[in-house]
Amino acid sequence: MSIDIDSPGPIEVKTPVPFLNHMLYTLLFYMRTSATLSATDKLGYDDHHVVEDCAIVLGDALRELLGDRASIARFASVVVPMDDALVLAAVDISGRGEGFVKLDLSRENIGGMSTENVEHFMKTLARRAEVTLHLRQLDGSNVHHIIEAGFKAVGMALYQATRKTEEGVFSTKGML
């Protein structure tokens, strides 16, 4: 994987899971990055390991790029509508990584991806990037719209929270 969070540009995503490709591209696009991410399914069991591996490498790349987390906005929250769906994402780039996801995903599979892996992706991404991430469905019933609005919201929130500031470490303690 390669990623540049400071320069929008070409995005290439290639996995054996079509819906995951769509969601990863969406996330990276709304983060305003340039990125290349590819994964294969060597085990051939199901989509779980591909989804998890993508979250791991993306989270690790973000953690490395953020370094000491000084001079960034740190916090951001975004609400994204997509037709019937309304989804909130909030992030704190604090070094304390955990994901909290509440989405009502009544459909089991979309485009080769088990919908249960959406939560797993977000939690793994948050832990590996050392970011606190909240993702909440506020309205909607179309599972595709809910998931896509979620990936858009997370991408937008990460973009906003990673913007450079001149204020140093944004913490009352003076450190993260």
Tell me what you see in this structure.
This protein is of the alpha/beta class and 176 residues long. The chain has one domain: Ribosomal Protein S5, domain 2 (2-Layer Sandwich). It has four helices and nine strands. The strands form three sheets. The chain has a four-stranded mixed β-sheet. Strands 1-3-2 form a three-stranded mixed β-sheet, covered by helices on one side. β4 and β5 (85-92) form a beta hairpin. α1 packs parallel to α4 and α2 runs parallel beside α3 (116-129). The model has no long low-confidence stretch (mean pLDDT 93).
Which characteristics define this entry?
histidine biosynthesis; 176 residues; alpha/beta; 3-stranded mixed sheet; Ribosomal Protein S5, domain 2; 4-stranded mixed sheet
N→C terminal distance = 27 Å
CATH superfamily: Imidazole glycerol phosphate dehydratase, domain 1
Helix/strand order: EEHEHEEEEEHEH
User: What is the typical, i.e. mean, pLDDT?
Assistant: 93
Question: Can you describe this structure in just a few lines?
Answer:
This protein has helices spanning 18-30, 48-66, 116-129, 143-161; strands at residues 2-4, 11-14, 34-38, 75-82, 85-92, 98-102, 109-110, 113-114, 132-139. With 176 residues, the protein is an alpha/beta fold. It has one domain (2-161): Ribosomal Protein S5, domain 2 (2-Layer Sandwich), CATH 3.30.230.40.
